[in-house]
Amino acid sequence: MTTFSLMQWLILLGAALLVGISKTALPGLVSIAVAMFAAVLPAKASTGSILLLLLVGDAVATVTYFRHVDWELLHKIFPPVVVGVALGYLFLAHVSDSNLQKTIGWLILFLCALGGRVQLAQFFPARSLSGPESCSPLFQKVVSTLAGVTAGFTTMAANAGGPVISLYFLWSKFNVKRFLGTTAWFFFLVNLTKFPFSVAAGAISATSFTYFLPLAFCTLLGTFWGRALANKIPQRIFDPIVFALSVISGVYLVV
């Protein structure tokens, strides 16, 4: 098994736990987990390891929210997502670890800015973006294409496509269960698509599986803990804390 110090193991196990919680309760925690992995592992290896854990969390989330999926929207947005994933693969395959780490940091900060727009829209719904019903079919197509390509690229390069998709689903006027169900299946399908690209880019290798089992256990634990946590802590209290920690994690990687 790959040798880590006690502190490094604690960071990785904690990050794996956050991945699980993010899948069933608080998506913003993924940004923190990404930064924690990048602080211990080389940037490409951290991206591949996070992907493996995301697939574990996806398995639980898709079963939990199976009855609340908008399959029509997924069918519409998935082709541009594949284009974005391919672009992210080309970027991932040719960038150095140090540059990738800074890129992850900047992506987190950029996506935090987008995530802040989502949070504001939750508190000021009257000021949120107009929904697709008030837009022309051409504009709807442009928005869905841009959202898909951007989400595919950011999730391939840094496992950080959540805020982009959250904005798009918010614009689509999803209720809570439809949002959770469609998000769960969207990322399950996207992460499956990313898997062979990540192997080809060297982000996932045999070494990735030498420390996978204990981390996967923490991710599974996090998915069940997240479901319980979501019923006890008000979202409007917890979200700003997660948002602030995400900004701090992005700054840490950039500097």
End-to-end distance, in Å? 31 Å
Q: Please identify the oligomeric state.
A: single chain
Structural class: mainly alpha
Approximate strand percentage: under 5%
- What is the number of helices? 10
Order of helices and strands: HHHHHHHHHH
> How large is the radius of gyration?
17 Å
Structure write-up:
The protein has 255 residues and is mainly alpha-helical. It is built from 10 helices and no strands. Helix 5 runs parallel beside helix 7 (162-171) and helix 6 runs antiparallel to helix 7. The radius of gyration is 17 Å and the shape is globular.
Summarize the structure.
By secondary structure, this protein is mostly helical. The chain has helices spanning 6-24, 29-40, 43-64, 71-94, 97-123, 137-158, 162-171, 176-200, 212-230, 235-254.
Tag the structure with descriptive keywords.
255 residues; mainly alpha; globular; 10 helices
Write the layout of secondary structure elements.
Elements: H1 6-24, H2 29-40, H3 43-64, H4 71-94, H5 97-123, H6 137-158, H7 162-171, H8 176-200, H9 212-230, H10 235-254
Helix pairs in contact: 1-2, 1-3, 1-9, 2-3, 2-5, 2-10, 3-8, 3-9, 4-6, 4-8, 5-7, 5-10, 6-7
